[in-house]
Design brief:
7 strands; 5 helices; three-stranded antiparallel sheet; alpha+beta; two-stranded parallel sheet
Length: about 200
């Protein structure tokens, strides 16, 4: 989730009174943005290895994948569902998957040859079901099929929409606190239905 703004309301919200809805100030102070990279365990509903930093680079995504794998290093296989963002099929990710899957083959050279030649060849390698880490890519313009997008809408409604954050550090602290609370009290698998997934 990119460009999450740390907005501080310039004036306090006027609380609800009998016959009067709460009124929120429209003016705000901008304190910057953060990018959230999180994974969701579809079996438990828990959010795994969240990170909240200033960028969403290839290195940031690789660090996140490493963090997810570190939560259960003995797992036989990992499956990640991701959209078609270029960082989701990067050279460093291919090298990491090859290392974890104990593949000693020559991967080639980025932009020139082999598995690393282009995005299509890297995505095909990362999607190989024989590897220890397998990526499944949503069709283009269908990232909504990824369950993490549904979870991001929960985060937006519960924390971001009405939040007031004094700094990017405050935003990060509140988001991570919500994730810890969510994992303790609210996490459960989504039950997919046509049009709208429901929590089981």
């Amino acid at each position: 989730m990119t460009g999450v703004q740390a907005l501080e309301r310039k004036y306090p919200t006027l609380t609800m009174t009998p016959g009067q809805a709460a009124r929120r100030e429209v003016e705000y102070i901008r304190h910057g943005t953060r990018c959230l990279i999180v994974s969701r365990d579809v079996a438990t509903g828990q959010v795994v290895a969240p990170s909240c930093g200033p960028t969403r680079t290839e290195a940031d995504f690789l660090a996140h994948v490493r963090g997810v794998v570190a939560t259960d290093p003995g797992a036989r296989q990992w499956h990640f569902v991701a959209d078609n963002l270029n960082t989701h099929c990067s050279e460093s990710l291919v090298r990491y998957v090859a290392e974890v899957s104990k593949i000693d083959a020559d991967l080639g050279k980025k932009g020139k040859s082999g598995i690393l030649m282009n995005r299509k060849t890297r995505a095909a390698f990362l999607s190989d079901p024989n590897h220890r880490i397998v990526f499944h890519y949503t069709p283009k313009h269908a990232s909504w099929m990824n369950q993490i997008e549904i979870w991001f809408s929960i985060l937006a409604r519960k924390v971001l929409k009405r939040g007031s954050f004094t700094s990017v550090e405050d935003l990060k602290a509140q988001v991570l606190a919500f994730i810890a609370y969510y994992n303790r009290t609210m996490a459960k698998p989504f039950r997919w239905t046509y049009g709208k997934p429901l929590q089981v």
